[in-house]
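G., before I forget:
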Amino acid sequence: MEIINTINLTKDIDWEFIDQVRKESGQDTALCYQCGNCTAGCPYTEFFDYPVNQIMRLLQTGQKKMILNSRAIWLCATCEGCTTRCPCEIDVAHIMDILRIIARRENYVSEKDVKKFYDSFLASMKHHGRVFEMEVLLGYNLRSGHFLTDADLGPKVLGKGKLHFLPTRIKGKDQVARIFEKFYEKEKNRG
Amino acid sequence: MAETKYTYYSGCSLEGTAIEYNISVKLILKTLGVSLQEPEDWSCCGSTPAHTLGHVFAAALAARNLEIAEKMGLGTLITPCPACLSALKKAHVRMTKDPAFKKEVNALLDKPYQGGVTPKSVLQIIYEDVGLEAVAKKVTLALTDLKVAPYYGCILNRPPEIAQFDDPENPIAMDKIMTAVGVEVCDFAFKTECCGAAFGVPKRNMVNKLTYKILNMALEAGANCIVVACPLCQQNLDLRQAQVNATMRSSFNIPVLYFSQIIGLAYGYSPKELGIDKHAVNADRVISSRIPVEELAEKKKEKAKKIKAKEEEGA
């Protein structure tokens, strides 16, 4: 007999979470009637634990933990297909973005490598004002412990004037770093 | 077309792994009489990682550059990179539509952005401002072996409210530009499918699976080259093509060129001048036969004559 995974959507409804996502995204999540257009066009469905239309349904029923623990919100690439095709004009990609932001804020990180890559990227940007590609990759490899990630690509780019071994430091790098600091300060005061 | 001038924001990739995109865009725009001025001391647009922290934060990183561009007073800012375009445009659109959002973003900046810049892609100004006729006029060489699949990627035309250019489901700007420079274009069903974007490093297998589908579809469409407008798409399809072959047990060997490089080839620049030698997959076999357009026209005429003569003989 085939066992079907069912989710009890009437349990643990977090009304505050529904409201929070609605406010932060500026989107009316109640409009979604589960047509499935977003999922049909989503290139990531095969990698998601919950397809994007299910994330929308879980959101309507306030399943905060299930959503913030999902891998889907970290594997979404914001390719904007869902947003472009939603018949209710819901900005679905923006909602996925908001869910990821909340997950980060509340320390739910189901895809640690993805977050580590983003962190490495942001650190490079904060240091130099521009992104130093070599540092992003090496920073990721160190953070993740996957020391040899993309080492095979080295010979393909070496000697082609593409890889720089020193960053471009801009004059206004302090201005960029201040954007980070002011943002962190604001987040701290959020409570 | 009269000389036009734009603010030119290249973005971080175009200083590094996509340097050939920068080189080729600058060459062809010069040929087309478009002059560029870089914003002094520009910084990273924030790209994908910034909007995993917050939208006000992401918009601030982009708006620092918009503010610098605003002071230059040229009105339109152009960028070759769709990720930069998306970050700059989202910041601009949201800030001009929502005063509260604008106030929050400007609170993170040393100097506030007032909304006086229109960000566009290089592709858009070539298509709309320069125009296909002017693009075609500069062609000197015919690329007779080339059959391209135009791949636009995910965010160049999406979402339409932000992109405000071409069609979100079936974009045609690159198709038409390729046709204008005399290159054969294949019908390509995966024009806007996502290549895996920034996940190449942390989720390589996922990206390899997604690019596999795109490479495969390009071959099925009859293409021998993929033409792109995005440094990340180029990297995923070209630099990672050997990884795709290893992961998916495939044997792809299809070159992936920037649209600017193909225009440059038709304008008579050498592959080296356009940085085509910097790609992972060698493109020589599809671009090496280039003949002057007059010669091609002559050949076509002769061929037509022969056919006519044969027909008359038969009759």
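Chain B is about 50% helix and 10% strand. The mean pLDDT of chain B is 96.

More on Monday.
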